[in-house]
Amino acid sequence: YGPMTGAAYNTAEHFGAYAFHDTDAWSESYTPATYMDNVDISLVGEQWKNKDRSYHWPKTGQLSFVCYSPFEVSATDVSATATKGVKIDGFTATNNLAQQVDLMTMDVLKDQTSTGGKVEAAFKHILSQIVFTVAPKADLSASVQSITLDGLVLKAVDTKANYAQTDATVASGAWSNHSEDLDYTFLTAAQDVEVDNITAVNVGNAAIVIPQTCAGYKLLVSYTITYHGGAKDVMEDVEVTIATDEWEKGLKYVYNIQIGLGDEIIFSPSIPADWDAGTGADISIG
């Protein structure tokens, strides 16, 4: 679960495969026969294939392939065509960051034959990844004993939508009919912020969200500053606005939370223009 990183496909994952058989060259107008219909592909031994039955290359014509990942989203309404690729209705993301799905699909792989060797399923991310980092604005060790990040909540993110490609490429894919707003909680326990190190560190887990317009989205930040001597500022649900208008598919957005202090205490000393007159008395000697 969570976003895949690097160029290697997760060997524990499954993906879904469609194949369409035709004896003519690929074109926008043809209607090929379905040869593989949403088949579960996983690593069986050292080969990526279906574990229950064998699929073989036809001796005539060619196959066009459409794949998506992971296969577990097949419970959603998934379909595919050789001209437009994958269509997914009612995909639902989760705000449980430990159970996220990194949804991917691929360009239609046209006119393949057995002479091409293995089917190259080159997946592309179609969700957006959101990462928060945190750091002090400057070295605060002279003024602060500690800073603790107590909470981080991204408010009202759309978690359900439809996805469809308008041609055979992932680049044409678009999300629509967004609904079901949920809050994303990035912290499950308090996180210390090193007050003498301005290098940003990750906050909790990354979130994988449906691409959407996010202008005006709010982030609630809670943190505690403990000063030398024991005084504390407890800041709860400080509201800030996300500085992005739209989250686009296949992109990773990193937002760095910089925690600073209030205005520095500056003194302005003064004295009276002159001493006020007191009541003196004569002192007589002799």
The DSSP helix count reads: 0
Q: How many strands in all?
A: 20
Morphology: rod-shaped
Main sheet record: 7 strands, antiparallel
Structural class: mainly beta
Q: Distance between termini?
A: 103 Å
Question: SSE order, as H and E?
Answer: EEEEEEEEEEEEEEEEEEEE
Averaging pLDDT over every residue, what do you get?
A: 93
Low-confidence residue ranges:
none
Share in helix: under 10%
Strand content: over 45%
Q: Radius of gyration, Cα only, in angstroms?
A: 30 Å
Report what the structure shows.
A hairpin with a 4-residue loop joins strand 17 and strand 18. It is rod-shaped and about 140 Å long. The strands form 4 sheets. Strands 1, 2, 3, 4, 7, 8 and 9 form a 7-stranded antiparallel sheet that branches. Strands 5, 6, 11, 12, 13, 17 and 18 form a 7-stranded antiparallel sheet that branches. Strands 10, 14, 15 and 20 form a 4-stranded mixed sheet that branches. With 286 residues, the protein is mainly beta. It is built from no helices and 20 strands.
List keywords for this structure.
286 residues, mainly beta, seven-stranded antiparallel β-sheet, rod-shaped
